[in-house]
Amino acid sequence: MLNLNNIEVAYDNVQVLFDVSFDVKAGEIMCLLGRNGAGKTTALKSIMGLLPLKSGSIQCEDNTLSTLSAYEIPKQGIAYVPQGRGLFSELTVAQNIEIGLMVKGSNPAVREHVLDMFPRLRERLKQRAETLSGGEQQMLAMARALSMEPKLLLLDEPTEGLQPSIIALIKDVIVKLKNEGVAVLLVEHHIDTVLSIADRVAFIENGRCPEISDIANLQNNQAKIRGYLGIS
Fold first, then answer.
1. Burial of 180 (0-12, 13-18, 19+ CB in 10 A)
2. pTM higher than 0.85, yes or no?
3. 102 or 28, which is more confident?
4. What is the rounded distance in angstroms from the CA atom of residue 37 to the CA atom of residue 39?
5. Does the pLDDT of residue 174 top 70, yes or no?
6. Which of 16, 98, 149, 164 sits between 20 and 30 A of 9, alpha carbons compared?
7. Which residues are CB-contacts of 10 (< 8 A; sequence separation ≥ 6)?
8. Topology of the domain comprising 2-77+150-229
9. DSSP code of 128?
10. Segments making up each domain of the chain, as ranges
């Protein structure tokens, strides 16, 4: 599905990613895990064409994403929920979802399917996004992304700062997407979330990817995860 092949990325003259390679398969949840500033968000932005590559390539199925402009990436079936959510705050819930539907011309049935995943949004369709709680805004950001009918979903810290009930809902939705065959690339710091839903973990450290591990190998080795996160 998605393949990053020896990519290197810099902000102006400051190199952030060095020779990073990993893949994400259809129907798989891959977690990028590492300390703040390790390069995880940079990897997601590179996939979305928001940062140019110094070298290497990014492919999704038969498409070489690294040769496309940023506006063309979502049309390839790739959706991105960034940190900060990126909502149109002055637009309503319904209008934000409609923007997602417009990317691929999705039909109204997709809207209903998305609202079934996040029933609280159905009650708030006429509210402006800026009036929602933090958890509701995260639901809306995911709902807008899912309205694009993605085959690959990128999520950057989707559970950050949320209450446990919202975290549980988001985890359930991510697992449901996996079961529907969607590839999910997830940046996450909550160890419990990683261990409970991820299939594999790509560790990012100082802009490199020194190790990729199946989650089964990490279930009884949380010390390794804590080491990469820099926590005791």
1. exposed
2. yes
3. 28
4. 6
5. yes
6. 149
7. 16, 54
8. Rossmann fold (3.40.50)
9. B
10. 2-77+150-229, 87-149
